[in-house]
Amino acid sequence: MPRRFAPSGLALLLSVTLAAARADEAPPGASAPATADATQVESRLPPLHPRAGRARPIVAVVGQNAGTELVDFVVPYGILAESGVADVIALATEEGPLRMRPALRLQAQATIAGFDADHPDGADIVIVPAVTDERTHDAALLAWLRGQSDKGATVVSICDGALVVANAGLFDGHRATGHWATRAQRAREHAAVRWVDNVRYVGDGRVVSSAGVSAAIPASIALVEAIGGTPAAMALAKRLGAGDWSARHDSARFGIDAGTVLTYAGNRWFSSHHDVVLPVADGVDEIALALVADTWARTLRGRVSTRFTGETPPSTVHTLRGLVLLPEEAPRADDASARTIAVPSDAPPLDSLDRSLQAIESAYGASTARFVALQIEYPATF
């Protein structure tokens, strides 16, 4: 069974099915998530200021080496780094590569131990992506998050990074949200949290949380606004190709139906498969790359990998805003079944999401494009 992080494929279907089957097992006092409305959730996050005498806040985006959701990690990093309102650092729980899911490998800029040594006062903001199921209770990660919170950091979960932050106990007594597919699980396992729906993100005190995968975009721009003000967020949104970044959301449109099951089964077992290769070189826009890689991988029609380009391909590739891509095992250059997809560079990077979904629709049909949009909790219409 595939590992789940921002549920995909069979894991997504089973997570919903099993959550529904176990709904009657909720502990006493557990309640279904509330439906947020305008009186419960502000449309903007409150201002965030640097601590410890810093001129700019330090934002730490932390990944778990064994498996971290790609968009959840890279998009907040890229958006905050592009904004110029904060110093952004990509962290891993330990030495070695970060294995991103559902595709790619990265080298973090520091480990959590190295970060602590360099910044004993802690980060101002810590961003927590979704990780694989078996790592949501990672002792080192949970202890580090508690320590950062104790030092005064605002802790931000993206998608089912909410499970990690909830396991650390940092959401208790607060409003929070997460990926639609873990709604029942979150209510059952963390009854002390005031789970809400119909929001792309919600802030409550020194914790912030977002809905599934694609909500990383508005949540990250909202963080920029909270740090640098509305004019900075508006200028950034224009450069990146974002429209509205409010918290408005309709959770009810996301769920499993017969078409979803048929698309999953057809793509997984009964369709032709074509590995997808993304040619990349130094300076590739990591936001666009993450959106393209993540969406194509979620079709279940083939593995996604990068190919480093140039007369002499480098051993690593440095992205536009400072991340380091590591090589992967890719299909042979002469593999006729491989599909080469260019990472767009002729448009704002966030346009890559709609472009990828449109290309997936053209390649595999509207049902697959809907299946991908469902997994990333993106309100696309096909």
Summarize the entry for a quick read:
The chain is α/β, with parallel strands linked by helices and 382 residues long. It has helices at residues 9-21, 70-83, 112-118, 139-150, 161-167, 183-189, 216-228, 230-240, 258-269, 286-297, 351-364, 366-375; strands at residues 34-35, 58-63, 68-69, 87-92, 98-101, 105-107, 110-111, 125-128, 154-157, 175-176, 194-197, 201-204, 207-210, 276-280, 304-308, 317-318, 324-325, 339-340. Strand 12 (201-204) and strand 13 form a beta hairpin.
Structure notes:
This protein is α/β, with parallel strands linked by helices and 382 residues long. 35% of the residues lie in helices and 16% in strands. It has twelve helices and 18 strands. The strands form four sheets. A seven-stranded mixed sheet has the order 7-4-2-8-9-13-12, with helices on both faces. Strand 12 (201-204) and strand 13 (207-210) form a beta hairpin. Helix 9 packs across helix 12. The relative contact order is 0.15.
